[in-house]
## 1
Amino acid sequence: MTAKLAFPHPPARPDQPPDFSNIVVPPAGSLPVPPLDLEARDARALAVGLVRVLDDAGRAVGPWADGIADLTGDDLRLGLRDMLRMRAVDRRMLNAQRQGKTSFYLQCTGEEAIGCGFQRQLEQGDMNFPTYRQQTLLIAADYPLEALMGQLYSNEMDPLQGRQLPIMHSARDYGFFSISGNLGTQYVQAVGWAMACALRGNGKIAAGWIGDGATASGDFHSALLSASVYLPPVVLNVVNNQWAISTYTGVAVGKSETYAARALGYGIPALRVDGNDYLAVVAVSRWAVARARLGHGPVLIEWFTYRAAAHSTSDDPTAYRPKDEALAWPLGDPVQRLKAHLIARGEWSEARHVQAEAEILDEVIAVQKTVEAHGTFVDPKPISPAEIFRGVYADLPPHLRRQRQEMGY
Amino acid sequence: MTAKLAFPHPPARPDQPPDFSNIVVPPAGSLPVPPLDLEARDARALAVGLVRVLDDAGRAVGPWADGIADLTGDDLRLGLRDMLRMRAVDRRMLNAQRQGKTSFYLQCTGEEAIGCGFQRQLEQGDMNFPTYRQQTLLIAADYPLEALMGQLYSNEMDPLQGRQLPIMHSARDYGFFSISGNLGTQYVQAVGWAMACALRGNGKIAAGWIGDGATASGDFHSALLSASVYLPPVVLNVVNNQWAISTYTGVAVGKSETYAARALGYGIPALRVDGNDYLAVVAVSRWAVARARLGHGPVLIEWFTYRAAAHSTSDDPTAYRPKDEALAWPLGDPVQRLKAHLIARGEWSEARHVQAEAEILDEVIAVQKTVEAHGTFVDPKPISPAEIFRGVYADLPPHLRRQRQEMGY
Amino acid sequence: MIEALRSAMDVKLADDPSVIVFGEDVGYFGGVFRCTAGLQASHGEERVFDTPINESAIVGMAVGMAAQGMRPCVEIQFADYVFPAYDQITQEAARLRHRSNGQFTCPLVVRMPTGGGIFGGQTHSQSPEALFTHVAGLKVVIPSTPHDAKGLLIAAIEDPDPVIFLEPKRIYNGPFRGDHSGKSTPWSAHPAGEVPEGHYVIPLGQAEVRRGGADVTVLAYGTMVHVAEAAVAEAGVDAEIIDLRSLLPLDLDTIRTSVQKTGRCVVVHEATRTGGFGGELIAEVQEACFWHLRAPLIRVAGWDAPYPHAQEWDYFPSPARIARALCKVMED
Amino acid sequence: MIEALRSAMDVKLADDPSVIVFGEDVGYFGGVFRCTAGLQASHGEERVFDTPINESAIVGMAVGMAAQGMRPCVEIQFADYVFPAYDQITQEAARLRHRSNGQFTCPLVVRMPTGGGIFGGQTHSQSPEALFTHVAGLKVVIPSTPHDAKGLLIAAIEDPDPVIFLEPKRIYNGPFRGDHSGKSTPWSAHPAGEVPEGHYVIPLGQAEVRRGGADVTVLAYGTMVHVAEAAVAEAGVDAEIIDLRSLLPLDLDTIRTSVQKTGRCVVVHEATRTGGFGGELIAEVQEACFWHLRAPLIRVAGWDAPYPHAQEWDYFPSPARIARALCKVMED
Ligand SMILES: Cc1ncc(C[n+]2csc(CCOP(=O)(O)OP(=O)(O)O)c2C)c(N)n1
Ligand SMILES: Cc1ncc(C[n+]2csc(CCOP(=O)(O)OP(=O)(O)O)c2C)c(N)n1
Ligand SMILES: [Mg+2]
Ligand SMILES: [Mg+2]
């Protein structure tokens, strides 16, 4: 026997039926709520298991459910509305891109519960370091849709004045750090921000966000390592949606049992959580945020989910995975599952759902119209070219003044 | 309670007595020999424990000892000679640096068992990717001392013709990859080399080497990750000598239990081994090399040891750790321990030891004299300046030809 | 140009077992720009495979393989994402031959789509060539046509030293002359769009005169070769356009001959102006041609600002800006 | 110069609670060059601390802190080891203000010992300034005296934007004039070795004329300012030596005034020649002073090869090489 290389493969390719038989879905409610000062060595079951709250009948069960028993129907309806609003925005913006009104778009379909549920557990002053697929954090932070769409259309309502790609938002007042297109870099910046919180003693926390594919980046390691050394108040989120563009998550996870398990090697406690279960998201986020805020140090959460849509408007996933793989995803759809729970609780109905969807769509369309009235990306030169030079530095140095003059401004 | 940062501290600083009470030294022979196809999930005890073969009485005990029961007195005397030769070379070269005969030197005192024991388990064609503190690999590969010292003196016997720092050897035929001064980079190159071995099916393996401090580098992660994904025949060695220049190993290990434990998070099995125990080194190296060669994939070994000397000739460790900390090191000295074992086996004596030391010193001094006759670093311009341009590329491009002419060659 | 690049890799995978191709999404899927589409299917997964998203690991693995004698041709998904691998490229690959005195070498190609013009914003538009041309031990190549792309890529894969191979993504599908509608014609309508089958080589280090002219020399590469052509037409000057193709090593002879003839020179690149490769070109040209110069050498380049998204056409060097520069040097 | 740098950090740590200092070995021990010695003892471990050996983490943490309003001043142990952090510096720190339209800023200083002359071989001798001057959003500073070092470092820490602060390690302990015995005099014997106590600032972006002269302008920075002084003495020409101090932004006014007067210019730097900052300087100078030039602008720089160990003095730009260049431009 001589050595041969291994190449991880997804369970199914386009010409095959979807196959998720390799995914073990444990029953809801089977994992305990650990103490806030959980140590990595005691977190193994949580890191290789899957925290789930909603069972197949839509009931909230188990100790994590007990931890959020105070949530009212209103709280949960708010969560549902966040997710519905997100989905409506995603659909409208995808269409807008198809119509050439914006240059690029990227949906988070299927992953709505994660950012929506997490954001609602944060306080003003906490800071997310999101990737491009966490627009949910903006929605649940009640970021004005005008600003969100303004950026997509790169018109005068764009808070970033055309500097950035449509989806690369920045919203300091909403706890949303300026997104970088370079994967991984911001995970360690989140750790730095959290260190600053601790050094200043301001009681705030940071949350890092990264995709399963991007955990491969060097700065994933930089982040885990510095968090492991200085123990700042940071929640490190990994959104494992099974794909990194066309690349199967196996190419990033390698022989690690889970992404959460990788964190244990750094002495950072970690949990793997059903990311399509809004209640599990809320319960675990609340626990993790409390842990960080109280000074028990970093924690990593792997949100187990599925990227139901294409990677972006530049991508066609039917080239690398079965067309209907999303439908076969064993953890279902987060909107449907929360809806079923609310109905099971007697707090919601099919009719109210249809009505809510319609209301939200109307709202989104209304904002869209207003924003589009200020121009869309198809308009040439929507924003002054001189914006290129503003803010490269606090003050304009001589060479940039010369260049701006050369440009005619 | 609000968050406060943690800052890892060594147990003792210069004004304090050495204190290794935090280090648990398990009895020799207490850990099992796992199967060659060991999986990470079954390696926990090995990764947080400490494989030891030699007990305090100098006896080889336990299952790992059984695995190397075939070693003869000659084999072990060879190991002892390797270590003694290493120590003699280190001492002579340190002196040479103090006399200005070379610009820089760096000893591996206390760590001799690791490279000496490991190298003897490799075959011709296997490749080490060493750091600057693995000159042991050269010694145990019977690299001519003339070449080693030629490089230190940057004279005409220098195989690298003055290009590199004294300690940055390169010896392809001896399985020793060209050392880079940049920490970490070569760990993933070792993985690449091992991948090439597997792709070509040549039956060879690679060994990566890294210090405890440098495990913090991004490419430590790159290496573990790619090894975890492609499962090439590579042995990943971490030499944990407790210090990275002035920085305590705690700043690199953070909350990880051990460096070996960090590898488990990548699904790579790992062992922590008494690096001052030549028999443990040989036993575990032999196991790891066989595992890799037979195609069972990567393995990480943390060699637990102590950097007894200064970091380098530019360093004065009394500024940051107790002067006599090395003496207090609970795992003793590798030379003394192997010597005691040989004596206990009736294969060696104090007298023979003294004689061997003297012989080796004579041999080293003789070579040194020969090499110094070709010039030392104090000679100005020992090597042609035109060497600067040779080998930047396979062929000299026009701009380098112009520059060489400008230089006058 | 995509097919040309693919064909180059296909030819080399077929004729040299030591050639291997890997990178993010390059395996099963064939790359986000489809440059490696079909190569895994025809050459097998051991020759063409997907990697984790870690550019340092991609290049680091490739260095280890190349040192053993393989010839990895790796893809960085966008040149903007090469920086995590910058250490491996500049401190390791570039110096391995020299520092080991030839014991180990590093025949490695790092391909990456470069440049703007696709509304990619600051992380899909950068032109980092000058960050590689400053590094001794590297070669830096950038084609402007499919014909060159294939011949240069084969030469790069066969080269005994590490080559940074920049692919101007704006002209992947056709020559782009700077039209702000974003339109370009397909390569099939362009003479250099024709790509011979099989093996051929364009040697590294040789520039190509794209247009002969007597009044002013334009030095350009990649997409800017085509934009410069449009500018010359717009300005109506008799310019000689030199497509550098290889920035390191540089074909100074061709450049010198031209500028000594014309006495004027405009350098064009997309990268930010300060510290860009244009400065190097001007320093060399003025030294080599000082007594022939009739006007200051000038640069048309990206502004010294992050590459903007919405203001793309104000940033991207336009035919109009280049034409203005041409007229300016003609005034002196 | 070491004491001057330490004093700058000491002053800022004392007067601004948002200033913090960290890096490899900088805490308890005080840095391998002792620049931070004593700072942890006086300001506490929360203000001055050791980090793991991960330059990307060092800068990445600093970016996160700076974005919240702190002012990290971090040390990279040698400029040769900055490359793992190159992505964080060039793609993150440099662009944060711009890309967030000012919501987040990045007042961050990255200090690093640079340059050769200490027999450090290829990994302790490099001069990577040109790899930063090409990056919009960064400032790049390099002092040549203790007096400047302190004033510039205080200015850098107070600057609202990220500053790359290069410290020429060869002149840490005294001015070095290129003597191949390696000897240098101590700073105490040099007028600019005197460093005022307390707070003072040398504004970024202002060059300094180190020596007035009529015949030729020498542009230099860092160690090369002193080597150029020796060369001018050796060549016996009436040269004007300009110490750039700040490479980005560049004080083009001072340079232009000088070259328009002298009509000749020699640029000196230790970094490899091709793609070095010298090219940028020459491009700017010839454009600004074309009609005043009497000779080609020339460069004296490191050869385009990895920095060698044993052949240090054949590589390092020597007074003799610079003197030859001065004589050459005077011939024309
Ligand atoms: C450093 C870097 N390398 C490559 C890319 C190109 N890229 C953009 S998204 C992406 C896939 C990321 O996958 P994942 O992290 O799983 O996030 P997801 O898209 O699934 O949310 C890649 C490779 C990048 N943006 N940055
Ligand atoms: C990328 C990089 N950063 C910093 C350094 C400077 N440096 C050289 S050795 C060293 C300490 C390394 O410690 P460790 O890895 O524990 O190895 P040891 O010296 O103990 O054998 C440092 C920081 C370097 N060589 N490379
Ligand atoms: Mg993903
Ligand atoms: Mg160490």
## 2
Amino acid sequence: MAEALTLDAFARWLKQFAETVHDNVGLLTDLDSAIGDADHGTNMDRGFKAVVSVLDGNGFESPDALFKKVGMTLVSTVGGASGPLYGTFFLRFGSALQGVEAVGTQELGKALRAGVEGIVTRGKAELEDKTMYDAWAPALEAFDRAAPEGTAAALAAAATAAGEGRDATTDMLARKGRASYLGERSIGHQDPGATSATMLLESAAATLA
Amino acid sequence: MAEALTLDAFARWLKQFAETVHDNVGLLTDLDSAIGDADHGTNMDRGFKAVVSVLDGNGFESPDALFKKVGMTLVSTVGGASGPLYGTFFLRFGSALQGVEAVGTQELGKALRAGVEGIVTRGKAELEDKTMYDAWAPALEAFDRAAPEGTAAALAAAATAAGEGRDATTDMLARKGRASYLGERSIGHQDPGATSATMLLESAAATLA
Amino acid sequence: MKKLINDPADVVKEALRGMEAAHPGHLRVDHDHAIIYRKDAPRQGKVALISGGGSGHEPLHGGFVGTGMLDAACAGEVFTSPVPDQMMEATKQVDGGAGVLHIVKNYTGDVMNFEMAAEMAAADSGIEVQSVVTDDDVAVQDSLYTAGRRGVGITVLLEKIVGAAAEEGRPLQEIADLATRINSQGRSMGMALTSCTVPSAGKATFDLADNEMEVGIGIHGEPGRKRLPLASAKDVASLLVDPVVADLPYGKGDSVIAFVNGMGGTPLIELYVMYNEVAQILEQAGITVARSLVGNYITSLDMAGCSVTLLKVDDELVGLWDAPVNTPGLRWGC
Amino acid sequence: MKKLINDPADVVKEALRGMEAAHPGHLRVDHDHAIIYRKDAPRQGKVALISGGGSGHEPLHGGFVGTGMLDAACAGEVFTSPVPDQMMEATKQVDGGAGVLHIVKNYTGDVMNFEMAAEMAAADSGIEVQSVVTDDDVAVQDSLYTAGRRGVGITVLLEKIVGAAAEEGRPLQEIADLATRINSQGRSMGMALTSCTVPSAGKATFDLADNEMEVGIGIHGEPGRKRLPLASAKDVASLLVDPVVADLPYGKGDSVIAFVNGMGGTPLIELYVMYNEVAQILEQAGITVARSLVGNYITSLDMAGCSVTLLKVDDELVGLWDAPVNTPGLRWGC
Ligand SMILES: Nc1ncnc2c1ncn2[C@@H]1O[C@H](COP(=O)(O)OP(=O)(O)O)[C@@H](O)[C@H]1O
Ligand SMILES: Nc1ncnc2c1ncn2[C@@H]1O[C@H](COP(=O)(O)OP(=O)(O)O)[C@@H](O)[C@H]1O
Ligand SMILES: [Mg+2]
Ligand SMILES: [Mg+2]
Ligand SMILES: [Mg+2]
Ligand SMILES: [Mg+2]
């Protein structure tokens, strides 16, 4: 089995994602222009800039303390739909790690699942509503399937599956979030939240293995 | 000497001018867009449409009655700078014909001069202020110079001189009217009022001879 | 992008500074939390009204803070719901012991952020909080399986009327019920001649050809339900009023407040032309206009376009509408 | 051209119908003459105030008819001064025996048409008429040999303050002197981000590139004095405030009403950003803002842009500014 994940690794994950978001503000906002209100890029960028400065300014005792702080920071700085959703994800992710001595593949998988359940509780999205959940759901399954091969393989599989889920949102008719206002016209556009969620998993695969 | 001008001839003049204005609404408005407020075409068109319906709906006893009615109609329908200016022109033009038995070249010349003096009294324009007066002033002079050759020649000369005056406005710096707000930037644009005034004289040359 | 702004990231912050400077007698602004308060908040014994949402809809909501309307407004970034911390803080600051009503427009982000705030406020301070969610936009299909209808124009009328009721000293439950009733009796529909431009995005959210318009748009620059050839004010009025009237439905003998709203880039002269058409349609339908409101009140940045809101009213609602209000955006009677 | 209108030729007529329908309790409209009256005009013994001008500047002037402001407004075609018949008719209708003040913005057409009306009214009815011509626009060079400065933002402040004085029952000469004093103590300057489009012209009056702005524009879509690269709100504020302050000049210790006005297509959020900058410049100059006004009050159709007006005030003027006013465009105290 691989080494347990360290606080440093988690910080690298978040920082790498923050960078990816920053480099893709335009892309995320363009996707949100087509079927939303043109702010997903700036929302995520604002939030993860705040996360980075929290990471830089604080030492953390444990992963759960770190992720709860990340979750609170996102809730307090992002707003919109993605703030409570990503915020809840990290709050639950952190809670799931509470008391965990060493974060291995299994613990990581459980935390991801807890985070995604938080997203569903908050947002009440179902599969094929054309939301970030359509990237998260296949990612969780892929993670679990590949978990026996270790964290790196599981995260790689999750990221790939998330990407497929993200791509599949293009043909969906939105039933949640702003894109749902477009009805039929939402078809043909990739969901911005599914896009950022996939980036989060890709950053994880790149940093947590 | 040529025949005295008839009421019918005067009506033909005004109708022909109304038509010319209508055909040139776009031109006059474009000129006014460059150095004014984009309404000279519609202002003139509104006024002379009203004039035509007054002409069609009424019999007139005499030229002076006809022109006073034309002047009042313009004052009451045009507004802006051109309303009082053209209105005053025709009011004074009419007054000058009061009691005149037969309108020959000389009487016509006097009436034109009276009309233009009305414009100057109202608008206080001086030469080279870049206004309609820059078309009127040379037209009056040319008319008087050619008057010995009769009405047709005088009007033709007046129209030509007006056109030269109109063309000369292009290089002038405006000191009256809206164009004056532009200062130096008014240079290089032909004055809309000088343009319509020239058309009025061209219509006269075409109909009153 | 052509806007009178400095750094796009500072627009909301600087606009709040401008509001504070322009209304020193009426408003107080907490710049750390981006909250606009009625100067004399908290009012002891009065139910407090809080609203909030993304910025870019001015005068909504900050411009409706004052006597007879809101006690506080939480400003989010442009088109982005404010965060729960803001609503929690505002709730604590304005509570005068009689509880707080949160007025929330039905957008996923707004609803979630206000929900979190209410949960936190309840856990944290024990302040009694009730919420009303406005969802009056008939352009959007309403269903259990979707995000539901958007909250648009009715929010303005609701904030005014419920604000007057709160000023009378009515208790929280009655205030919340009144708010729910107003929302249920109001319907809206909007259209755009042009897209707005979100400052941080720097370009128009969608493109419309010179001969096109979007019908069924909301207030966040989101594209509408359909794109149609540009039409006359008369036809636009039908496109907006007919589905609104059919939805409740409003019928012969009903009395309404008729609200013709501009999207921020539409001048008043056009809104009056629109109101003329709307009034005629209502007259033909036998619907009486008890009161009207014409102007740019719930906007979408610089979008050109308009919306029509109808609220079915009785004497009580008209009385509350007429009651004094003193805010930067709506003022009469005092 | 994208506008919420029907036939361009009918815009003014239909907007007046819309205004009448929207404000049935306050206004009366004579559609034959395109005159908007205060519902209770004529008021016996009160000096009556009439203004008017081209349409396209809404709410000016029709939106400023009512208690504490104008008794009547004459609406011309878009950007075209009304005709003398309108002012004559309005003068006769509103005179309550104490005489009538004509408030005229300094444009060749307006001045000539009002002059003719005053001449005709004097000859015709013996009603005592005085006129004030506003000319506050510092973008335009003032000289005996030109048309002089344009009347812009000060007109709004003047109509409010003089309206309050008339309501107090002051005699015509005093009213006229007050109006002259206000005009002499006020200065303005405006700029545009975009041109407006005159409905009957159907296209923009001038073209501005995406990175350009016009500085020194008036309210008729006439091009400005210079074209500059697009600048920040901070720089725009300096470009407008500095020449205004220098012109009167306003100095340390002066008290002003500061008015940041939108041109019709500029949303409130940007105007508050602008006001924030203007307030800071004034503070640095030691000029006290006694009162402020921020919004779209004297517009140029759908033009995006703004203007800044400063009026030097004393306690009397502030008192009159604060006095009750009840018009569609400005309302407080009643
Ligand atoms: N109910 C929901 N459940 C899950 N995800 C959602 C829900 N509503 C919206 N989202 C996600 O949020 C994304 C939009 O986020 P963002 O643009 O930041 O917020 P907003 O929609 O408030 O402007 C969407 O692309 C979608 O993936
Ligand atoms: N003081 C004046 N004396 C003579 N002509 C003038 C004067 N002011 C303006 N004009 C003429 O009026 C024309 C503009 O008329 P118009 O566009 O109809 O009115 P407005 O300027 O009120 O919009 C100008 O082109 C100019 O020829
Ligand atoms: Mg968004
Ligand atoms: Mg003109
Ligand atoms: Mg948003
Ligand atoms: Mg004009």
